[in-house]
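FW: tagging you since you asked about this chain on Friday. Here's the raw sequence from the shared folder, copied in full. Didn't touch anything.
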Amino acid sequence: MLKYLTLIFVCQLVGELFIGSFGLPIPGPVAGLLALLLFLVIRGHVPAELAEVTDGLQRHMQLLYVPAATGVMVYLGLLASHLVAFSLSILVSTIVGIGVTGVVLQLLLKGRRDG
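HL: got it, structure written out here
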């Protein structure tokens, strides 16, 4: 179990180093998740121990939002002064996200029906 928890942290570190080295505009943990995905694709399956570790992390995921919520409270004045811009960006990104999800779902379902 410790081996796979370490793997998750190593993938995050690899992502941080990769993004830091090339100055790409995506978060390091996202690149780390892609590295983990690549590892799993090469391996061909998700090991049971890794699934157990990730299930444990997901059970306590709400604790990971505490620092973000604290940050929102610290910058509440800034958020209030740009309320319209923040609201529009949240609305547009939500609509785009739902739209992209719908298009991807349609493409996947079309491929399943054709195949």
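FW: The CA atoms of residues 2 and 93 lie 37 Å apart.
HL: agreed, and The chain has two domains: 1-59, 62-115.
FW: great, closing this out.
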